[in-house]
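In this section we walk through a basic example: taking a raw amino acid sequence and producing a predicted 3D structure, encoded as discrete structure tokens. The instruction is simple. Fold the sequence below.
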Amino acid sequence: MHNDRVPPLAAFRSRDYRLLWFGNFISLTGTQMHTAAVAWQVYELTKDPLALGGIGAARLVPLVLLALGSGVLADALDRRKLMLVSQAVMLLCALALGAASSFGSISIWLIYAITAVSSAASTLGMPARQAIIPSLVPREHLAQALSLNIVGWQLATVIGPSLGGIVIAAWGVAAAYWLDAASFLVIIFTILLMRPQPVAGERRPVSLAAAIEGLRFVRRKPLIWSTMILDFLATFFSAATTLLPLFATDILAVGPQGMGLLFAAPSVGAVIASVYLSWRGAGRRQGPLLIWAVVVYGLCTAAFGASTSFWFSLLMLAGTGAADTVSMVVRGTIRNLETPDEMRGRMVSVNMLFFAGGPQLGEIEAGVAARLLGGPLSVVVGGLACVVSTGLVAWRTPQLRRYTDGLAITAANERAEGAGVVST
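The resulting token sequence is shown next.
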């Protein structure tokens, strides 16, 4: 019997995907250094925890305002050129912070302003960057390419802040900004070397009607809509990481060192799951897999909330990271396979509102619930609410319960026609 399983690391056979992955990894590592430097510098300037919240606001406001428009641009313009402009603006922002810090002319409001501009540039480039991936790899390699992206992202979130701390301690925050600027040169160079396929299908001009068309498309696709709802509900109800300082201090009594391990545990689980998915694939029954991944995410969250054992808490947090990664890969695969290429940028931009809104509102919900119920009970209730809401979404969306990734059908048709799929 023919084995349809995708070979390990097959997505890296695509030259353009390799270039994008490598450039993204270097750039994301630099961005994580930049993020650590901004937080350190803001607190150093103000000694006010509330000022740290201003960084999040400076990033969130441009994202909310520009998300839908960025998707329209990604479907109307050359995605590769849009990525180049986005990265170039972020490079200039890193240079501006580096120069202001080196010459002693930095201020809290300048940091906020440059952070907002950088966030706007990132928002405008993100749909193009995500929408271009399906044109770089064969359809049957897409899930693997998405999981490899998560591997790179998670590694960058571990390496970047750690390296940033070393750089800041040794040479100051300006050096972290200069290194971030250098990382943008790498991603710009790799994008210049790429030769992606042009957008398939009719391109719509930049207009309000095109943005509304993207919203309507997502809303009329139960499969895509349900994956976004699941993403939002999971991050809204199960924002356990927001309360980790409380757990480290009052429940587990492990101090700041233990808190660091608690924060790292989801990333460890995510890397393990990403490597497994990159090696073995996500299988064919991706609809049920997605549902169960979100259920496991909620159950691990609830178990963490009830735990008084440090090691069991680490295990449960690693479980949330692994389950979230499986969910993320499957959600991304379903959305990309079910969205026409000419609509993909707008689909990504609508999704940006969900994955940005869920965590932000979830942090507020976690704080309010912890105040009313106490930290442990609020996390347990949130995890169980995630499980219940996932069951409701699955019950209301039979298409999701029955979803098979479609690649088996595609492969069967290709074999029947004697056509092979060649990577770009």
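Looking at the output, two observations stand out. The chain has two domains: 8-138+158-194, 207-416. Residues 406-424 have pLDDT under 50 and may be disordered. In the next section we compare this with other chains.
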